[in-house]
Amino acid sequence: MRLLSYLLRSSPYIAVLAMLTAFISGIGNASLITLIHTALNTDEISSQSAWKFMVLVCFALTTAIISQILLSYLYRKAVFDWQLQLSREILKAPLRELEEIGSADLLTALVKDVTSVGSSLLPILPLCTNVVIVLVCFSYLFWLSWQLFVAMAVCMLIGALSYKLVLFKGHEILKLAREESKQLIEYFRLLTGGLKELKLHSHRRQAFLDKNLEPTAASIQRRFFKWSVMHSLTQTWAKFLLFFVMGLIIFIFPKYIKFDAEILTGYILTLLYVRAMLFSIMGAMPTLTKANVAFEKIEALGLKLIPETSQQSKLPDAIESWQSVELVNVTHTYYREKEDSTFTLGPIDLKFTSGEIVFLVGGNGSGKTTLAKLITGLYLPETGNLYIDGKKVVDNSREHYRQLFAVVFADFQLFEDLLGLENPHLDIHAQEYLTKLQLNHKVQIQDGKLSTTALSRGQRQRLALLTAYLEDRPFYIFDEWASNQDPMFTKIFYTQFLPELKARGKTILVITHDDKYFDWCDRIIKLDHGQITTKLKPVAL
């Protein structure tokens, strides 16, 4: 039912038309069996009956083809729409929540779960057709003999309950397999990302295979095998059940219920006809079960396939002029998985003014990157507030506030397309920066697209710096940018790039350990275990 609801909400007109043609096709198919049964019990078949039969066949065939074409369109459109909507949901969600969910879960939801939900559309309209056929045929059987129908229905109900019991058990196994699949994806990510480390250390490589990858893959294989066994049992039982019922009708029920040979013929003929439909209905259950598991996992992540409103909010522009950004009594607490402990940053009281260079220093794990994410509005403070020019940053203004910043984080992500940069001379300016960053011999720019990002770590950092320059935001933050640069570029960064940005009226916050260049900033902030311990002038610490 939830799948039908999502389908109707995402493509209401096409979905209704597809289901309507499926229902009509089902009625046409069911009418054929009643016509055939009548013809078998008639001494002479009239030409009118023959024409009626041909019309019904063409009608059922045409509506079935139309419903299948609409179904194919719905399937492709639904998967596309749902992946796009989940992408929007992810981009709207708070960064801290997304980091806690993890990239493996998000990728599984975007690719595997949405595909599982979409694949359930393939049997759903044929399922509607078959349900209509079965209902019409069963109504015909009830009309032939209600006593025989009740006896048959009781036997089929008992069989259906046993079928449902096995199906429920398979659903639980499938949920466990889905949980382990995200861990397997994470191991695959480690495998592809850690090729050098694994090749250089044979014991680590073997331990990774023996203790991580192989046990997880084997466990998933066992669970899917159990699910396949249960699936096979349900399918075999579905076939056997109908033959069992027909055997009761032929050999057992006549001893207790009086009916003539014509009714018996009608029951056997109809049951043989609906056998394929019943088998198709039961065969669709595992696919729908997988879709239900995918639904539950997507919803468990706090994401929705269908937006609550179709209204699109206006994209905010970057803040053109400002004087100060201030953090007042700001704190933020989060869980550190590696240390199995919580970490609290703050309370923090800081003020940044337009046109200054500030260095942020401190040991590993002191909270420097977390502070940068709080300053930029990516993390929400648990206590305290952010202010821009004395005005408090609230939920309605947070997105606008974030447009103040151009940031190069340590775990930056490059985009080959220079997206969102409205500049008629973008290629010219980008080429100038590529030359300044000594990347013009490796990377070219055309129509706002970089020719490649497959470079060394240090070169990729320079490309990230290029993107930040082109964004031309008032407030720049660099998180350990020079950590992978050679001494020459490190010196250029501190002695040329930063002063040039300051000369353009930009505010720069640099997270750094390079005490050699401390005299190139206006002030230094030292962070220790989440607390600001000193605010210094630019002298060596």
UniProtKB/TrEMBL annotation:
Residue stretches making up the ABC transporter domain: 325-541
Domain ABC transmembrane type-1 residues, every copy: 14-290
Subcellular location: Cell membrane
Keywords annotated in UniProt: ATP-binding, Membrane, Nucleotide-binding, Transmembrane, Transmembrane helix, Transport
Principal localisation: membrane
Residue spans crossing the bilayer: 12-33, 53-75, 121-143, 149-168, 240-257, 263-282
Record membrane topology: Multi-pass membrane protein
SUPFAM superfamilies, A to Z: ABC transporter transmembrane region, P-loop containing nucleoside triphosphate hydrolases
UniProt entry tagged with the keyword Membrane: yes
Protein's recorded name: Cyclic peptide export ABC transporter
Species name: Leptothoe kymatousa TAU-MAC 1615
